[in-house]
Each structure stands twice: as structure tokens, then as C-alpha cells.
Design goal:
InterPro entries: Integrase_cat-core (IPR001584), Retrovirus_Pol_polyprotein (IPR050951), RNaseH-like_sf (IPR012337), RNaseH_sf (IPR036397). It holds the Pfam family rve. Keywords: Membrane, Transmembrane, Transmembrane helix. This protein is α+β, with helices and mostly antiparallel strands and about 190 residues long. It has a domain at about 10-110: Ribonuclease H-like superfamily/Ribonuclease H (Nucleotidyltransferase, domain 5), CATH 3.30.420.10. Helix content is about 45%, strand content about 15%. It has seven helices and six strands, in the order E-E-H-E-H-E-H-H-H-H-E-E-H. It has helices spanning about 35-50, 65-75, 90-105, 115-125, 135-140, 150-165, 175-190; strands at about 10-15, 25-30, 55, 75-80, 165-170, 170. Strands 1-2 form a two-stranded antiparallel ribbon. A two-stranded parallel sheet has the order 3-4. The longest helix is centred in the first third of the chain and has 16 residues, at about 35-50. It is globular. The termini are far apart.
Length: about 190
């Protein structure tokens, strides 16, 4: 369970393309149908167009009249998992667990700022080859890797490491940060 972010978000709407595994995660303030539909339209439809099908759990927000109207307007087939069986939406559930584990690693000083960390986490996830496909979700979605992907991945990974320096079992890692930064810049510049 996420604690409310400093920007007022308490939930994450996870949207996954079943074929490519490309995933978006939109921070939302609540789980009302209006909020979910607006995030769905803004985060997915306006970027990629309406999908052919939406598969979700049986939450009231996904079974609402508003969601049915949205699906009817865009000609979308709506399906849902069986009750109390989240494995029926396994890809999203697996990503939810991955996202939750990554957000748990945030230092205490960033815990309430989790919503601003989602873009970096999603970029890293979407540009990493998926075990089941052997390709990155980004590549399968767009037919190419993002420009400068390796460079961006190194910079993001290093910046995350530098910003997430934490005390582990009394071993203070903060002293390593000044030594990591020059090595990271050298590595990134050599790519």
C-alpha cells in the first residue's frame, strides 16, 4: 500500500499492452470511475489511440456506467478477471509487485515523493529486455530502441544509485557518492 504522495496521489493506475509488455503507470488521487477514465484517456488513448480491448479486475471503477460508455464510444471490447482471482490479469499484477518493490527501496526522504519517481522507473522497465520476449517492451511497441538508450539507462541508473544512497546495517554508503559521480560521468561519456 502506498502512502499519499506530497502531490496528493494515493494510487497508481497501471496500463499494460499485452503483446509488447509496454507499461504505463499513472499516479491518481483516488479510484473513482471519473478519475480512472480520465487517466486512461489522458495516459493511453491520447498517446496510442483506443485499444481493441480493456481487461481489468471487477472493481467498481472498471465496471461503472462511465467505463461502459467510454468503451462503447471507442468501440472497445471490455473483459474482466474472475472474482478474487488476480492471476487473471497476471501481467499487471506482476508489474504491480515489481513497482511496489522498487518504490519500497526509496530512501525515507523520498518516500512521499514516489509519484515523481515513476517516469524513471517506467523508462528503465520499458527499455529492459523482457524475459518472455527477449526484447524490450519499448522496442516491441515502437519498433526501435529509444535514441541514446544505453546512455540514458546508464545516466538514470547512476542518478538513481546516487540519490538512493542509504544506510544498510550501519554501513554508511554516503561517503562513496563523491567517488561514484566521476566514474559515472566517465562511463557515460565513453559510450
Amino acid at each position: 500500500m502506498l502512502e499519499p504522495s506530497c502531490s496528493g496521489h494515493e494510487n497508481v493506475l497501471v496500463l499494460t499492452d499485452v503483446f509488447s509488455k509496454y507499461t504505463l503507470a499513472a499516479p491518481i488521487r483516488d479510484q473513482r470511475a471519473e478519475t480512472v477514465v480520465q487517466a486512461l484517456v489522458t495516459e493511453w488513448f491520447f498517446r496510442f489511440g483506443g485499444p481493441g480491448r480493456i481487461h481489468s479486475d471487477q472493481g467498481r471503477n472498471f465496471e461503472s456506467t462511465l467505463m461502459k460508455q467510454l468503451c462503447g464510444f471507442y468501440g472497445i471490447e471490455k473483459s474482466c478477471t474472475t472474482p478474487y482471482h488476480p492471476a487473471g490479469n497476471g501481467q499487471c499484477e506482476w508489474f504491480n509487485q515489481t513497482l511496489h518493490n522498487l518504490l519500497r527501496t526509496l530512501p525515507v526522504s523520498r518516500k512521499r515523493d514516489w509519484a515523481s519517481c515513476l517516469p524513471q522507473i517506467l523508462f528503465c522497465y520499458n527499455t529492459t529486455p523482457h524475459q518472455s520476449t527477449g526484447e524490450s517492451p519499448y522496442f516491441l511497441m515502437f519498433g526501435q530502441e529509444p535514441r541514446g538508450c544505453l546512455y540514458c539507462s546508464v545516466i538514470i541508473a547512476v542518478s538513481l544509485l546516487l540519490s538512493f544512497a542509504v544506510n544498510l546495517g550501519g554501513c554508511d554508503l554516503d561517503w562513496r557518492v563523491p567517488y561514484c559521480r566521476p566514474a559515472a560521468v566517465t562511463l557515460a561519456c565513453s559510450l
